[in-house]
User: Fold these one by one.
Assistant:
Number 1:
Amino acid sequence: MNFLDLFKMNMKVFFRDRMAIFWMTVFPLILLGTFGTVFSSLRQPNTEPIPLAINSKNPYLAIYEEIPLFEIRAVDWDLEETAEALNQDQVKAFIDSENQIFAAKRSIQVSIVRSAVDSVRRGLELGPAARNLNYTKSLIKTEASKTDPMAISLLSMFSLYVFYSYFATASYCSAISAEQSASGIRHEIAPFSRLKLIFSGFISNLLYSIAFIFLLKFYTDYILKLDLIPEFWQSLPVLLSGSLCGAAIGLLIGSIPRLSDAARINLGVFVSLFLGLLSGMMSPEIYLFINEKVPIVARLNPLSRLTVTLFHINHLNSNSESLACILYFLALALICILLAGRKLGSLDHKSLA
C-alpha cells in the first residue's frame, strides 16, 4: 500500500470520526458566530484621536502631526510634569526629543503609539524616499479596528480555532496505537510501513485543518461581516505554522497511554480555553497584565503569540513579530512530533510483546 492509498484511507477514517468533526468544525463556527454577533451589536467604533504629548524639540514633530489618529500636544515638560500628566491620564504617552516613549501603563493605545514611532524610524532610514511614505495608511486602515478591544478578543478566538487541529491528530492516535484500540493492532501487523501510516494520517488531518482556516476566513468575512484578517495572505504563513503546531501537540497528547478519546478532548478543550483566556479572548487587559507581570508566560503561550502577531500584521501593518512566531511554532511542533513518535513506537512494541 503506497502513501496515496494510506492518505485516502486516513481521510475516510477522519470523516467518520463525528467527534473530531464536531470539535474542529461545528463547535468553532457556532461559538465564533455567537460571539461575533454579540460583539458586532455592541461595537461602537472609537474614532476619538489618542492624546499624545511630544517634546517641542522633537525633530519629527511635524511627521506625527500629520497622523490624524493622534491628538498632538507639543510641550516642554520636565520629568515631574510628564509623570503627572501620564498618571492623571491627560495623555496616553509622551515622546521626548530623542524619540523615546514614556507611558504610565500598558494599553492598546500605547501599543499603537509604539508602532507609529517604529514606522517613523524605519521610514527615516530610507532617507529622501521617506517623503513619499503615508504614515497614516501604514498605521491604520480604519481607526475603529485599531483601538477596539473586541477586535483583539475575536482575533484571540480565531487563533484558538487555528489550534483546533489538535483534535484531529489526538483522535487519530487511538486508531494507530495497538495498546489503545483493536484497529491499532490491525495496523501494526498490516503489510505497510508504520512511518508512512503515521505521516499520512498526520498530513491528512493537517490538510483538513488548513482548509478550515480558509473556511473561517470566509465565515468571518461573508457571514459575520467582520474583517478580522484583512491581510490574510500575509497572515497565512503564521496561520499555517500555528495549525501545524496544534496538530503536533495533538499527536503528543494522543500518544499518552491509556487515555480515552473523551479524556483527550476534555484536556484539549480545557487547555485551549485556558490559554485563550490568557491571550485576551475575554479581555485584552488580561493579556496586557500578564505580559507586564509575567512576560515569559505571554511569550511561551502559543495562542498569545499568534494573537499578537495577527494583530500586528492586520491592524498595525507590521511584520515584526511574524518570523519569530513562525520559528517558535515550528520548533514546538518538531519537539512534539519527535516525542510523540518515540512514545507511539514504544507503546506498540510493549503491547505486542
Number 2:
Amino acid sequence: MNTIQQAEKEDLIPILKLQVEAFTQVAKLMGVCELPPLKQTIEELQKEHE
C-alpha cells in the first residue's frame, strides 16, 4: 500500500518538470498556448511549499 507524504524541498524541481510536461499536453488539447501552471517558476513553487 502506498502512502502520500508531503513533498520535500528537493522534490520541487521534479514536481515542476512533471507539472510543465503534463500541462503542456493539456494546453495542446485545449488549443491554447498559456496556462498558469506553465508559467509557474521554481521560486513560486518554493513559496507555496513553505
